[in-house]
């Protein structure tokens, strides 16, 4: 597992700062930004890195640094990572949450619109462009993939490419396992090392930690995610001038994910290999259909990586993003 780079090892192009959205002036968002180089010749002018729920922008720094170093001689686009309200260095809660029930103040739709406002202001201040003129590339992990998809869906014509790293299954309530109380339940279908008691224990653990109604530190209400994105394979996305965006779908290494699930949740490896991994793979296959067949790649397995692909292997993500950026030039 790669640790975030210390400040002394970061390229000088990476700058850290804060910004207050004009619609939420009482709270500042922390971001890291690198100005693209003049020699960069590509429709994409800005790559935006979108966090999952329990990570922050620091986990993207090795990827951002690697892109700068790899492309410094030939040029690179501007790069932006940020911490949403309530995560990472942005410790302040979303002002919208004030006076509302804890953990129920804002949802993914609000996050998408906040991101758009951030890009409006960053585009004006740093790049003298509107979000549509920036021809955005999203690099996202986990629920960040949901945010990126919704942005591309709602702000059509602004996104030219997406690199989706082990997307959250937007239409899942994380009830991945068979229900022993269902009339259709057949205990003979369970792996040999999994008892009904173990199954019940795993179902309870996952519900307590991952169910959409579980409150998180960020205060992001996830209860309507399945309503916002009920399918992995639609709607289709539209980029600039009606052209579909380029897309790379990356999924975790099933063996590594099973091992990490065993270590963190006590989930038998056989349970992950029979149920959660195939379900996730099927979801990732659906994601390939949100653009034209000739513009989608994957699902690409990130060998040795668990759910947080960019944290586990930044070089893999650097290579995938570099490939995507080259594709935009052709």
In short:
By secondary structure, the chain is α/β, with parallel strands linked by helices.
Written description of the protein model:
The protein has 330 residues and is α/β, with parallel strands linked by helices. It contains ten helices and ten strands. Strands 1-2-4-3-6-7-9-10 form an eight-stranded mixed sheet, with helices on both faces. Strands 5-8 form a two-stranded parallel sheet. Strand 1 and strand 2 form a beta hairpin. Helix 1 packs across helix 10, helix 2 crosses helix 4 and helix 7 crosses helix 8.
Count of alpha/pi helices: 10
Instruction: State the end-to-end distance.
Output: 34 Å
Strand order in the largest sheet = 1-2-4-3-6-7-9-10
Large-scale geometry: globular
What low-confidence regions span 5 or more consecutive residues with pLDDT below 50?
Answer: none
| Rg value | 20 Å
The fraction of residues in strands falls at: 15-25%
The percent of residues in helical segments reads 25-40%
For the secondary structure, the number of strands is 10
The biggest beta sheet, please? 8 strands, mixed
Order of helices and strands: EEEHEEHHEHEHEHEHHEHH
Mean pLDDT: 94
Structural class: alpha/beta
Defining key terms:
10 helices; 330 residues; alpha/beta; 8-stranded mixed beta sheet; 18% strand
């Amino acid at each position: 597992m790669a640790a975030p780079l210390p400040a002394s090892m970061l390229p000088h192009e990476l700058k850290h700062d804060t910004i207050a959205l004009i619609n939420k002036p009482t709270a500042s968002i922390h971001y890291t930004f690198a100005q693209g180089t003049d020699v960069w010749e590509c429709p994409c002018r800005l790559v935006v890195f979108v966090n999952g729920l329990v990570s922050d922008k620091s986990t993207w720094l090795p990827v951002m640094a690697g892109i700068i170093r790899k492309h410094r001689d030939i040029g690179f686009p501007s790069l932006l990572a940020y911490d949403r309200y309530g995560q990472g260095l942005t410790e302040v809660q979303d002002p919208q949450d004030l006076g509302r029930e804890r953990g129920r103040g804002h949802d993914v739709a609000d996050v998408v619109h906040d991101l758009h406002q951030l890009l409006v202001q960053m585009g004006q201040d740093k790049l003298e462009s509107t979000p549509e003129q920036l021809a955005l590339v999203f690099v996202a992990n986990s629920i960040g993939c949901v945010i990126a998809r919704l942005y591309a869906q709602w702000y059509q014509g602004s996104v030219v490419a997406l690199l989706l790293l082990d997307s959250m299954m937007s239409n899942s309530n994380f009830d991945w396992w068979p229900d022993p109380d269902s009339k259709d339940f057949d205990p003979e279908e369970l792996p040999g090392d999994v008892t009904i008691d173990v199954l019940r224990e795993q179902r309870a653990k996952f519900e307590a930690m991952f169910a959409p109604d579980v409150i998180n530190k960020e205060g992001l209400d996830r209860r309507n995610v399945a309503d916002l994105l009920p399918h992995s394979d639609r709607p289709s996305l539209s980029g600039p001038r009606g052209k579909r965006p380029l897309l790379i779908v990356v999924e975790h290494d099933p063996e590594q994910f099973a091992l990490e699930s065993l270590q963190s949740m006590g989930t038998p490896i056989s349970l992950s290999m029979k149920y959660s991994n195939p379900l996730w793979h099927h979801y990732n296959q659906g994601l390939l259909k949100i653009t034209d067949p000739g513009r989608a790649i994957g699902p690409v397995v990130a060998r040795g990586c668990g759910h947080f692909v960019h944290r586990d292997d930044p070089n893999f993500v650097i290579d995938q993003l570099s490939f995507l950026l080259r594709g935009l030039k052709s």
